[in-house]
Amino acid sequence: MQPSRKIASNIFKGSLGNMIEWYDWYVYAAFAVYFSPSFFPSHDPTSELLDAAAVFALGFLMRPIGSLVMGRYADRHGRRAGLTLSILIMASGSLLIALLPNYQTVGIWAPVLLVVIRLFQGLSLGGEYGTSATYLSEMAEPSRRGFYSSFQYVTLVSGQLIALGVQIILQMYLTETELSS
């Protein structure tokens, strides 16, 4: 593989991982309106949605810690290893949220477990952000670092737009009851 092709391949892979991570992060927010009654039953849709939004916000509190922990891990084990671990934590969290029992099944443990999982996802996202920026700038040619590093922001927004796009498509084909189940 030619050096410029290898660089482009590494930039693409790093950007794709970043996009997947942000997609997983934002899909929670996009679908909170559907799953919030399962974890925060109050018979008041506004309260349920606010509780889900509070959990979303709590995840952001873990980002600085995630940056510290995952950045140190990436410094010791390599950027790819750090990014891979970050994606695995985020994807595992999304899977666990999908499998979580609801409030009617396990009571208060449903929202508690949701908070714990989102805290781990916030840790993951914090680690992804700094490690991804470093990886993209290290992989780029010196004259193209700014351009390639900007892919981190492009893929951040792309992940959010894809999450919303998936929501719109599902809303077109599924009923509200099906989306909430």
TrEMBL record:
One of its GO terms (molecular function) is symporter activity. The keyword Transport applies. It is a multi-pass membrane protein. GO terms for cellular component: plasma membrane. It is found in: Cell membrane. May be a proton symporter involved in the uptake of osmolytes such as proline and glycine betaine. The keyword Metal-binding does not apply. Keywords: Cell membrane, Membrane, Symport, Transmembrane, Transmembrane helix, Transport. Its main location: membrane. It comes from Lacticaseibacillus paracasei subsp. paracasei Lpp122. Residues 10-181 form the Major facilitator superfamily (MFS) profile domain. This is Putative proline/betaine transporter. Pfam families: Sugar_tr (PF00083). The chain crosses the membrane at residues 21-40, 52-70, 82-100, 106-130, 151-174.
